[in-house]
């Protein structure tokens, strides 16, 4: 038995009679090799022996267990000796200490064979131990790098989720640790890049390289092929737009500039723009600032109506109210499953929060008109900031009043009139489909047609109206508001309407 220190792999093999084994061993250091299991298997074949690489407690790392003296193995693992050679019951054994990287322990390479170890076999065992040490160190370094990348990715997602629920203070605090100054801004744009799911990691890396530390790059937790990028500055945005060039099958949608508190709104805009980008030759699109119905309403009346609609939430703790509002705003734009993934909660949590808001507001989220009304209130509330509320005006304005103005009615008529040119009565089908809560089967029964006909008509209306209808969101709610403005749908019931009716009964 002898102790010795063994080093790295030799630089030359001129002292061996046959250098072939050295070349084979070095091949295991090539990028497509580097597998300790393959190295141990190669060693077993090269010296005609049983080989095992195991931790001090006997846990195999590679190869099959080879019986050895536990005390000797412990001495090797603790560093008292570096190597040992002995004969045990007709077996010839070589044991070598293999240092495990970034750990307080070592592994033991045990080689047992019937014939004594000659110079060649001893050299092979010694140098193989060095190769195994290098491979284990490389694997640990790669694993540490992957853990670091995953931690950074998880942290970026956490920051995005904080922004989605309007907790900008916490988002800045979390970001400051690794990306100082990233969110030292009041506004940002959101971009969503889309590619095939198997290419997303490469696209995310390209986004990180293009934006450096000037943007928040997140692999979307809801859509496997999406990368979400929150861009506070302008330069990074320009570099991001150039990514789609030379990348077939990659698309990019971007939002308008929004306050950080409206990141969820900006995300919805980016997804909407992404749908447009799929049909453009340059495969990129920014959210179009077309005429919105809320911009045609009296601002003061809209603010007071919004505050009245959302007043039942005012008694909640601030963080609970913000959580409910942010979840509902996203839940009205996307499915409960996707909303849950974006926010990092369960879909049952999303539904529970939305059910609570639904109950507090007296709304019916199965009714598209009710969803459109609450969506209008939530989007208006997000932009209110510090505007002053007139208590005397509370309850005086209803949704019908907001939609009855000449500007809104003109907009609604011009929008829906586009459907009249089609001979299939797209307008009538769309009205029945909305009244049925977006359910094609129920609409078909009302119209006396097949459900597939309803779906085809709604799908045909999308390019005419230049709005997505089958995917619930802002586009659909605008079309619903247009129907309400023209009296084609009944005004939805909200808690404010109930309160006003009660007040009228009392004062009457």
TrEMBL record:
Positions of the PucR C-terminal helix-turn-helix domain: 337-379, 426-479
Alphabetized Gene3D superfamilies for the sequence: PucR C-terminal helix-turn-helix domain
InterPro entries: CdaR-like_regulators, PucR_C-HTH_dom, PucR_C-HTH_sf
A Pfam short name: HTH_30
Protein name in UniProt: PucR family transcriptional regulator
Originating species: Streptomyces pharetrae CZA14
